[in-house]
Design brief:
Blueprint lengths: L1 H21 L16 H8 L7 E5 L3 H6 L4 H8 L23 E5 L5 H14 L6 E6 L6 H13 L3 E7 L2 E2 L2 E2 H4 L5 H7 L3 E5 L4 H16 L6 E6 L20 H9 L2 H6 L4 H24 L16
Parallel strand pairs: 1-2, 1-3, 3-4, 4-8, 7-8
Antiparallel strand pairs: 5-6
Length: 312
């Protein structure tokens, strides 16, 4: 288990570090919202899911896409705008999808995949399947009306959906305390009659255990949904590969405690040096191959503009 968690954490971290390295060259044809510092949430959640479970999420999508098993080559190709990308090069970083691995898609519009996840969970219940659906979103999404509508419906229908709020405190540049009079997402979930729990220590294994327990209860016929608020912190700017402490809306001092409780070294210290070296080598080789695949892939043909378009 520790090896799997470490490999997933390290893989996501290194993929995003490579994205940050490549981004200034303009080879990546899409805005990027990095999850560096927040990887433990996607890994803790997705390690507890089965291959046939599904996840829906927001534009900060790299971590859960990879943690759920999304194809890395297709991801890099998508960022490069190539025809071999997971959305044929037409979606970019904010619209990653890999249905074969249960990644049902991301959206650039805040909160819009929450009702998608609820609807999918409703279908699973009507079909009497034992699947679990996860909805990932940030704290900013809890301010959207569809958040409350979706939670209310999910609670009424007792749906097998787990809501995961990645609360990094900032909606772009504004702290949650300046946006909400009652800035506690868990309280909002409880108001809809949903079991809610806050996890604020960045403990990947603890999160895995809690998600696993919730999923097992729902698979056994227990009623959902469940809500987990995970306190975290993004290390990079809202969109892009750089730091943004010079902008004045947050300080490096504020970030320091979060950097110190980085989940990656906490897991690494539980493994042998040999295991860490082996896993890192595997990941580095996979990333190199994925980047090479993206760079060698063709761009979409002009006629692709008219494909997958819904018209009257």
């Amino acid at each position: 288990m520790n090896e799997r968690i470490f490999r997933s954490l390290y893989r996501i971290r290194r993929v995003e570090e490579e994205i940050a390295r490549i981004y200034p060259t303009d080879k990546i044809k899409s805005p990027v919202h990095l999850s560096i510092g927040q990887e433990w949430i996607a890994v803790g959640v997705c390690e507890a899911l089965r291959p046939d479970d599904t996840v829906f999420g927001s534009y900060r999508s790299h971590a859960y896409y990879l943690a759920k098993g999304g194809d890395l080559k297709k991801m890099f190709a998508e960022l490069y705008g190539k025809a071999t990308g997971c959305a044929k090069g037409k979606g970019g970083s904010m619209h990653l999808v890999d249905v074969a691995h249960g990644v049902m898609g991301a959206s650039a519009v805040v909160g819009t995949t929450i009702p998608n996840a609820v609807g999918y969970a409703y279908a699973m219940k009507l079909q009497k399947r034992k699947n679990v659906v996860v909805s990932f979103f940030g704290d900013g999404a809890t301010e959207e009306g569809v958040f409350h509508e979706s939670l209310n419906f999910a609670a009424l229908k007792e749906l097998p959906v787990i809501f995961v709020c990645e609360n990094n405190f900032y909606a772009i540049h504004t702290h949650i305390s300046r946006r909400q009079k009652a800035p506690n997402p868990c309280d909002k979930a409880k108001a809809h009659g949903i079991v809610a729990e806050q996890i604020g220590d960045g403990d990947t294994q603890r999160l895995y255990n809690r998600i696993n327990a919730a999923a097992d209860l729902m698979r056994a016929g227990g009623s959902g949904p469940y809500f987990f608020e995970c306190l975290t912190y993004r290390w990079k700017e809202h969109v892009g590969p750089n730091e943004d402490f010079d902008l004045g809306y947050r300080s490096r001092q504020e970030a320091s405690p979060w950097l110190e409780r980085d989940a990656l070294p906490r897991i690494e210290c539980l493994l042998s040096a040999e295991a860490c070296s082996r896993l890192k080598t595997e990941v580095e080789e996979e990333i190199s191959a994925a980047i090479r695949f993206a760079e060698e892939s063709p761009y979409p043909q002009p006629e692709e503009l008219y494909m997958d378009v819904i018209g009257d």
